[in-house]
Sequence to fold (138 residues):
Amino acid sequence: MPDLFRFGVSLEKKLLDEFDSLLRKRHYVNRSEAFRDLIRQELVKEEWRTGTEVAGAVTLVYDHHQRELVNKLIDIQHDFQRMIISTQHIHLDHDNCLELIAVKGSAADITKLADTLKSIKGVKHGTLSMSSTGRGFK
Ligand code: NI
Fold:
């Protein structure tokens, strides 16, 4: 278990009440765990901002009947294959596919890949989940 340090935080009563209310809604067991999560979120944001090695997932929803679209998605993924760790294809229904592309690499390259895939005509929805390699913090 890592060393734990305690520190005091001063907040206006109203802000603390709102924070506690949010913690209950999100099922945090205590404020410490919520603060840890907030701090980790900011550290991950900083990793993406400074362009260090990051990890994440691109999610795409599209109609597989559009063959040109499917070929473009494959071509682009081959162009960026260095940063693609794994791909999962899920047939959502008769028409729609969900593709999960797990990625690791520089923040700039991953953002470029995600933007390129999301902007292809026919992609119904695309997201980039910005996460971390986990090495930057405990
Ligand atoms: Ni499919």
The radius of gyration is 20 Å. The beta strands are 53-63, 84-91, 96-106, 123-131. The CA atoms of residues 7 and 98 lie 44 Å apart.
